[in-house]
Amino acid sequence: MCELLGMSANVPTDICFSFTGLVQRGGVTGPHVDGWGITFYEGKGCRSFKDPAPSCKSKIAELVQAFPIKSQAVVGHIRQANRGCVSLENTHPFTRELWGQNWTYAHNGQLKGYKQLDTGFFRPIGATDSERAFCWILEQLRIKYPRKPANMKAMFKFVASLADQLRAKGVFNMLLSNGEFVMAYCSTNLHWITRRAPFGEAQLADADVTIDFYKETTPNDVVTMIATQPLTNNEQWQKIASGSYVLFKDGEVQ
Amino acid sequence: MCELLGMSANVPTDICFSFTGLVQRGGVTGPHVDGWGITFYEGKGCRSFKDPAPSCKSKIAELVQAFPIKSQAVVGHIRQANRGCVSLENTHPFTRELWGQNWTYAHNGQLKGYKQLDTGFFRPIGATDSERAFCWILEQLRIKYPRKPANMKAMFKFVASLADQLRAKGVFNMLLSNGEFVMAYCSTNLHWITRRAPFGEAQLADADVTIDFYKETTPNDVVTMIATQPLTNNEQWQKIASGSYVLFKDGEVQ
């Protein structure tokens, strides 16, 4: 299995604190040693950092921890391989263009019978069940909506119905974003927390690191974090019910 | 205008030396201050580093210079904006999937009448003439070759015929790679050099840096560099004729 990390915020926000917690799970406090990746949106563009090496030993992970890239939408993942070998092309998140937008996706879980998924125009590059499922979702969206729909909430509801079908094939926890929305679909484990004023201190569960968000934020900031398991041990995270999803935009539930 | 940088090699090779020369042109020895990007292939996967900030001041460029990422196929670009604002989504190289492969592209030049190019399935994300031209090339390839053709040299010849049409709209120097092949199409300026045993010293034209390739290589290494202008001042670079292209694989001309 793997761990997911997502963020949605109303102002460009860095994710250094949470990423520091997550990378510990890549070989120190967790067994997820088969690579990691993180995608930051900046407007319509996005940048990904990925490494097939364990996150706790990755030079590129050190850079991401040290370098405060600010974003309003982030999708991250650390991997414990089940389907597909350990290689760059099998490392999440995956990004593809649809409707002239970058869509980014990460999956935690394992699927059976995924080779029958018809991905149509979107062909997988790697060998994972995850990427094939992503291509299948995009193809279903392309068929249903030849152009970007005006009603994006209805579109994400349709994505959830596709995710339900994938969940029937195994375990399918997912993060999906176009840079504006971040969707969190839960099959087994996915938690979230929204931080807003008054901000307080948070203590990482996986490393001896504390942050005082009061010093790092302004009173109007709204920042939602999404993670497979809560990343802090002194805050109340909400678990998403199995088969449900939560949609975020600018840090707020939609 | 912009500057292109490409590499094709028969063994995974780092590009730190040439990249050090190129970044100088992003604000020190050249006027290309509107961002830079570089894509490294690792097998079927690829990783991109991009920054809308001038390369000579970029933290991420410092990382790429310091961190010897080894690859057999590289496409890089530094930008002086003409069409499209300075932003991440307008920063080259651009990567899209076709035939289940990552295709990476960078363009130097400027096109007129590019908004009429029908990009079909591949929709531009940013606002550059370059990305639209790339989407148009991919769409023409998708129509002509629904599956990956067995004869890739014929396919690249077809790409050159498309590039000829784009060159008729202005200036169109291009690098295109699928990780296996690197194609260099010249409209006005594009140079290349193949380094092989016996290796000697090279002196960067844009910075006071010398490298002794003999110390950095093995006798069987074959490494071709492609650049808008020669990056070294003590080696013989070859200029590609206007309207011509050179195709490389494993460092060798195909």
Description:
The structure is a homodimer of 254-residue chains. The first copy, chain A, has 254 residues and is of the alpha+beta class. Chain A has a single domain, classed as Aminohydrolase, N-terminal nucleophile (Ntn) domain (Glutamine Phosphoribosylpyrophosphate, subunit 1, domain 1, 4-Layer Sandwich). Chain A is 21% helix and 36% strand. Chain A is built from 5 helices and 15 strands. A 7-stranded antiparallel sheet of chain A has the order 3-2-4-1-12-9-13, covered by helices on one side. In chain A, strands 5-6-7-8-14-15 form a 6-stranded antiparallel sheet, covered by helices on one side. In chain A, a hairpin with a 3-residue loop joins strand 7 and strand 8. Chain A is globular, with a radius of gyration of 17 Å. In chain A, 48% of the residues are buried. The model of chain A has no long low-confidence stretch (mean pLDDT 89). At the A-B interface, strand 3 and helix 2 of A face strand 3 and helix 2 of B.
Map the helices and strands.
The structure is a homodimer of 254-residue chains.
Chain A lengths: L2 E12 L1 H9 L11 E7 L2 E7 L7 H8 L3 E9 L15 E5 L2 E11 L17 H16 L7 H16 L2 E8 L3 E6 L4 E5 L5 E3 L6 E3 H4 L6 E5 L10 E2 L4 E6 L2 E2 L1
Antiparallel strand pairs in A: 1-4, 1-12, 2-3, 2-4, 5-6, 6-7, 7-8, 8-14, 9-12, 9-13, 10-11, 14-15
Helix pairs in contact in A: 1-2, 3-4
Pfam family, one (chains A, B): GATase_4
Keywords (chains A, B): Glutamine amidotransferase, Transferase
GO molecular function (chains A, B): transferase activity
